[in-house]
Amino acid sequence: MRLSVQVPTYNRPQALRAVLGAYARQSDLDFEMVIADDGSGAETREMIHRFRETAPFPVQHVWQEDQGFRLAGVRNRAIAATQADYLVLTDGDCLPLRHHVARHRALAEPGWFVSGSRVHLDRALTNVVEAGATRLDTWGWSDWLRHRVGGAVNRVSPLLSLPRSAAWRHWQPDRWQGVNTANLAVWRTDLVAVNGFDESFEGWGFEDTDLAIRLTRAGVRQKTGRYAVPVLHLWHQPVSRAAVANNQTLLAELRTSDRIRARRGLAEAPVE
Fold this sequence. Notes:
The protein has helices at 13-24, 42-54, 71-80, 100-107, 123-130, 141-149, 188-193, 207-217, 244-255; strands spanning 3-9, 32-37, 59-63, 86-90, 94-96, 112-115, 118-120, 183-187, 221-224, 231-233. By secondary structure, the chain is of the alpha/beta class. The chain contains nine helices and ten strands. Helices cover 33% and strands 17% of the residues. The radius of gyration is 18 Å and the shape is globular. The strands form two sheets. A seven-stranded mixed sheet has the order 3-2-1-4-8-6-9, sandwiched between helices. The protein has a three-stranded mixed sheet with strand order 5-10-7.
């Protein structure tokens, strides 16, 4: 099974550097990476170039012009840039633990997508991580519990590891609520069938919910990745919510229809 890790980013090279470093230390390095760049500047481009020279896996850098928050569009460009069978979607501010790729590979199952969880870091700990002063993928339980008590992380329960073959992972196959593309794995053929992300969603909000609804309508079922594949979400300033009302309207329209394919999606994405 060919696997592609897809990492979107926008002008946050320190966070991206930490994320890329964590992927370079994975126990399973048999994957490619596509960095989906929503219009970042020279600093990000140069950092990606340096990383690509030493990365233990192939790296593509897909870039689109900065015309505002167009995450759906750049994700489609990244999907179009790979022929991998299975895509692990994340964000450029979400750090994986050491076995993240290996566990996603083990959870992969035809006809299912896998939705994982997040642990949120506070601003102070994020600054330490981005400065390279600590590597969270080396922490033990005493480190996590100490920082949970101190308020640097919002929870530690997602870091527990439970069997990946457990039947309860299939208990809510039609659930789309709470699915977040900061930690989602899906077969490329299933993304193609629903025409990928809907690029009508611009600005922050709900492009991932839209995708999850259309996947479940297409018969792709939800498998939980809880207690197997958490990611560590670095703190950032709140992004603009100016597009929320429009994106909520688009989502409401979807929910009153039986539509499966994105109105403007992967089929229309430029091929690099």
